[in-house]
Design a protein that fits this description.
alpha+beta, six-stranded antiparallel beta sheet, five-stranded antiparallel beta sheet, 5 helices
Length: about 240
């Protein structure tokens, strides 16, 4: 297991603000999930283009309750993801974890550690291959986005969705006429669950002397931000 050098997440726990390392481990695999029915996909595309009006790099929430009514294989998707995480030794973490349906048109490099520092993400992608990769610049890992891809990673780890032939995020790679929307299910897994922390190599209470009032991510001892185009760590403004 490896841990991103110099990156620390300060997150809210039941005992107040706590510190932990930020892992660059990415657990990934592919599960067999049925293709969503055309009526449901058409509904997603309307929502993405009309109501969400997704711009290149945006990541937004789709209505899950409405989707479930038109999604006969929804439970099969949940079961496939749950079986995969259970095989990794993560027990039934997905069963009791918050779940959302998301959409993106690419994704600028970012981390989610300030808002979701107490969690790791588990994402199950539902769209077909559109020559896009999920990229983690800390480790250099690129994972082709295809239906059935499932990943687990630290919310504090910088990541983005970029064109397969590119090494950075560029809005020009996502023109309006290109069908490049990706839809995925995402779970918030509790980072303090022992099996998950062990799988990601998380160390806790790494900065006990730092007293903060709000959750945030630090890099090399100062508040950190991520360059949206390169994924490099920057000093937060």
């Amino acid at each position: 297991m490896s841990v991103a050098k110099g990156a620390t997440a300060f997150y809210r726990s039941e005992h107040g603000l706590r510190s932990r390392s930020v892992s660059d481990v990415v657990l990934s695999g592919r599960v067999d999930v049925p293709e969503p029915p055309p009526r449901l996909v058409a509904d997603w595309m309307r929502e993405i283009s009309v109501n969400l009006a997704l711009e290149p790099g945006d990541v937004e929430v789709l209505p899950l309750a409405r989707a479930r009514m038109r999604w006969p294989d929804y439970d099969l998707c949940l079961q496939a993801a749950n079986d995969w995480t259970r095989a990794l030794g993560l027990s039934d973490l997905l069963t009791d974890s918050p779940l959302a349906l998301m959409a993106c048109r690419g994704a600028r490099y970012h981390h989610d550690g300030a808002q979701y520092g107490s969690a790791a993400f588990c994402n199950l992608f539902l769209s077909e291959d559109q020559d896009l990769d999920l990229h983690f610049p800390l480790s250099g890992q690129r994972i082709p986005l295809r239906r059935g891809l499932v990943v687990v990673f630290d919310t504090g780890q910088p990541h983005g969705v970029i064109a397969r032939h590119r090494n950075r995020f560029d809005e020009a790679d996502f023109p309006p006429e290109r069908d490049c929307a990706q839809v995925f299910l995402t779970w918030e897994l509790p980072i303090e669950a022992p099996a998950l922390a062990q799988a990601l190599g998380i160390s806790f209470d790494t900065e006990p002397s730092v007293l903060l009032e709000e959750p945030q991510i630090w890099h090399q001892g100062v508040p950190g931000a991520v360059c949206p185009h390169s994924g490099r760590w920057l000093r937060a403004a």
